[in-house]
Amino acid sequence: MNDQIQQIAEIEWEIPKGFVPGMRVPGRFFLSNRLATGLEEGALTQLANVATLPGILRCSLGMPDIHWGYGFPIGGVAAFNEETGVISPGGVGFDINCGVRMITTPLTLGDIPDRKELIEDLFVAVPTGVGSKSPVRLSQNDLSSMLTDGAANAVEIGYGMKSDVRRCEENGAMPGAELEFVSTKARQRGIPQCGTLGSGNHFLEVQVIDEIADPATAETFGVAKGQICVMIHCGSRGLGHQVCTDHLKILEEATKKYATDLPDRQLACAPLHSPEGEAYFGAMAASANYAWANRQIITHLVRELFSKKFGIGYEEMPLVYDVAHNVAKWEEHDADGSRRRVCVHRKGATRAFGRGQREIVQEFRDAGQPVIMPGSMGTDSYLLAGTAGAMERTFGSTCHGAGRMQSRYSAKRRLTGETVANDLARRGITVRAPSSAAIAEEAPDVYKPSCEVVQVVCDAGISRIVARIRPIGVIKG
Predict the structure, then answer these.
(1) The domain containing residue 179 runs over which residues?
(2) Structural domain total, the chain
(3) Helix orientation angle between 275-310 and 140-149, rounded to the nearest 10 degrees
(4) I need a labelling partner for 363 at 20 to 30 A (CA). Which of 2, 90, 386, 457 fits?
(5) Catalytic site residue from 67, 233, 345, 400
(6) Has residue 418 been placed in a domain?
(7) pLDDT by residue (tens digit) across 385-394?
(8) Is a pLDDT exceeding 90 seen at residue 174?
């Protein structure tokens, strides 16, 4: 690691102002010594670059799953002053509101005699892969309603339960969606894809809760040892990607218009209350709402299959929670000695609000916000809870996953899908994907150990463990 970077605590590091020219604040990241050995220099440079943006508050933040991304590092968090700050698509990503949700069931391992058959049935039921098409036929008016109302609209047209909506971050719909800033091309891409898993690192995973670390909070969240659950990880599909692509072009011009000096053109941005900044926010919020509707429809497909296959009630599969990890949001935080409204960018990072925050659904408010931290196909996932420490140190943020250590290209050169699938099968994990390459590029060992990442956020006091969850079957996009 660069000699200028200072280790200021056992799992906390600082990039000093001056690491790159123009830094307004330091960079700060959380990482164990073990994870630090594989850290990309480029990710640290990106973290420092973010610290040059106008109006950034306190510091540029990196979670322990940090790795190189577009503009911002993945695992990056930054909060911006409402009056002087900017909004940047690089701080959100192309897959707007890529997020994860967790559903519980009344089943245990003994209730699933054939895991391979279950995964195959789910693979048929949930459209997966690059060209997958939605089972839902949407009109332009239907799409407009989803862009505005998110998960609630999906429930309204028959895909889920009313209780699902309050178990989503932002109740499954961000305010401020502006449909006029979502292009015709983005809408065209979105109509056939709502209710599809997509490709890349997106997944649907059947799991068993292996260990309860915090019994009281687990009971509050409705999870118990031995319970079968399902985790869904996907986002806004081609619609969100097109929105990002469209507005990057606009914001590249805005960067010149407002004479913003950037160390990297991928940080293209505009003042928060400029026409360009507000247009991007409106389109981004609409895309986020589409993503919540997308995960809601997939949830419905999963529940229907489990109901028919195992004879359990649809309502016996409640949603624990749904979190976003690629989004920019208006929130209130303490910064520079006062409580203020700020725009928090989370790029591969999860909101982790602590106990008592009014943004948390009432039944979880005394426990803290549920945080769903997926593993990497062959490693454990975790259900965490947000903390007061996260509110104080990271603008209420924590990690979003294990964090990639190796590119997809490198993984496919080194491994075959058959090898990875056979290794997982020996460990009792069934995997299904549209292609062998899709399995190879997502092999567990191309990611950081999920247990180590979780330990760092717990040691930092920005999350606490509620339950450890083991995979038994995975569908990869």
Answers:
(1) 6-88+96-405+447-476
(2) 1
(3) 100
(4) 457
(5) 400
(6) no
(7) 999 999 999 9
(8) yes
